[in-house]
Amino acid sequence: MLTVLLVDDDPEFSEVACTIIEFLGHEVLTACNLAEAREWLTKETFDHVLLDFMLPDGSGAHLFDELNKLPKQPRITLITGHPSVKGIIKGLCGPNIDYLVKPIQREDIEAVLSGKKQPKSSQAPKIKKHFGHLIGESACMQELYKLIERVSRTSANVMLLGESGAGKEVVAAAIHAASQSTGAYIATNCGAFSKELIGSELFGHEKGAFTGAVGKKEGVFEQAEGGTLFLDEITEMPIDMQPNLLRVLENKVVIRVGGTKTIPVNCRVVSATNRKMEEIAESKVLREDIYFRLAVFPITIPPLRERREDIALLATHFIDEFNRDNQTQFKWEESQLDTLTAYDWPGNVRELRHFVHRAGIMSDPERSEIELPKTIESPFAKKQSTTPALAAGRTIEDVEKELIYATLEKVNGNKTLAAEMLGISTKTLYNRLHAYGDLSKDDA
Amino acid sequence: MNDDELATIAKWVHDARKPLNRISMQAELVKMALNGEIPVEKATVALDKIIHSTKDCSHTLAQMMASLGANSAE
């Protein structure tokens, strides 16, 4: 934590800058002119002084000599509205001085206080985010964009099919963004709630509807009024709750748990599952009537291995994101991007993202080279090559269970890490373990 | 353009940059509120201040144009 003195004559700027500096974990005191700043310097010791160049009682440069004579010299950052000032006084001041040119952004403040230069990534060519969310220029992604654009003009319910980690929630958010609806985007995971709680989550409840219902609550259908409701892992919804959902989809009204009043609802429902269409039909995890209500417009999201040309783009985007968050300047080498492109990524974009972040953490923050592990390990890849898991006649549930336990074993029982490696949410992992009878309610 | 005119324009630019700096910082607050880093109510206040600053900036630019127009008429 640093102690910072902010000297600026604009109270509105000072107030916001203080909020940001305090949020960054530092202590900050303010002065609105040179006289006040001098007074603070006699009372307190500062690690950093942010100094406006033009102050009512003189130039911030007048304070340089006094600051240099202090027993503990603070770092100085001169705030100026004129980029030319930087050049003029550069020769007069020591290396202890940084510059911020107005208008200032949060990352500028973050960079000067951390003593690191701004990441160069901001100058790199910008990667296009389609509909503000999706990255990829491959032919199958172009096809996906076309589908999103078409369905967004209608109010049709969409079902997203795709492997775990392929980006179903991101596509749902893209559909919402493309539809330019006025309501909110609300996401919920149907696999994350017990049979008792899912009714309340979806349809809301009235006060006193059940033990613990201390107040009334709006369900997600009401919250997404005029917008988009994303129901993730729809096939994990308890089968006996599905008639209630069907009623809402057909009649466009909800009745809160414990209530009697019908409340009209109007939102697009985007549902998602990582099961294949044939599997949904065969395993009877979803009622047929619900399927046809939800999958008016089914969209299959391609796995990452089927759009390899997007891997370099995504890896670059993720490392830029890491650089921005950590004030580092990592950059991929061509050969590294080739290695990433050659890999199958069974956990899809989510696995790639976590891998890039792990590589960023493992690398030296003072250098731009990224240290890539020699092999890219994945529990998915391992299981794919294990013969018993793929033997004909085994159920999907059995294979899934084996995979979950093998992953847990690999990470010494760390459920958060296991969920990350499996490409599922921690809640889903807990639910599965609960279903296997391997977890008490207290653990969950 | 002579030195006096340049100094006048520099002053106007300085005055116009002040609300722009406020807008930039208030926008950072909105981003923080959207990220859940500060209470969402602060975003509403910040957005009001952004609107106010855009008016300030517009006013400064209008004054600059009026002043430049008056000078060239002389």
Tell me about the largest β-sheet of chain A: 5 strands, parallel
* Approximate strand percentage of chain A: 5-15%
* Mean pLDDT, all residues of chain B: 85
Q: Oligomeric state of the chains?
A: heterodimer
What is the spatial order of strands in the main beta sheet of chain A?
2-1-3-6-7
Largest binding interface between chains: A-B, 16 and 21 residues
Report the principal-axis shape of chain B: elongated
What proportion of the residues of chain B is helical, as a percent range? over 70%
> Low-confidence spans of chain B: pLDDT under 50, at least 5 residues?
none
Note the run of SSEs of chain B as H and E.
HH
Strands of chain B, count: 0
Biggest sheet character of chain B: none
Shape of chain A: globular
- Percent of sequence in beta strands of chain B: under 5%
Number of helices of chain B: 2
Number of self-contained structural domains of chain B: 1
List the helices and strands and how they pair.
The complex is a heterodimer of chains A (444) and B (74).
Chain A: E1 3-7, H1 11-23, E2 27-31, H2 34-43, E3 48-52, E4 54-55, E5 58-59, H3 64-68, E6 75-80, H4 83-90, E7 97-101, H5 106-114, H6 139-152, E8 158-161, H7 168-179, E9 185-189, H8 195-203, E10 204-205, E11 217-218, H9 220-223, E12 228-232, H10 242-251, E13 253-255, E14 262-264, E15 268-273, H11 277-283, H12 288-294, E16 297-300, H13 311-326, H14 334-342, H15 348-362, H16 379-384, H17 387-390, H18 396-410, H19 415-422, H20 426-435
Parallel strand pairs in A: 1-2, 1-3, 3-6, 6-7, 8-15, 8-16, 9-12, 12-15
Antiparallel strand pairs in A: 4-5, 10-11, 13-14
Chain B: H1 3-34, H2 41-73
Helix pairs in contact in B: 1-2
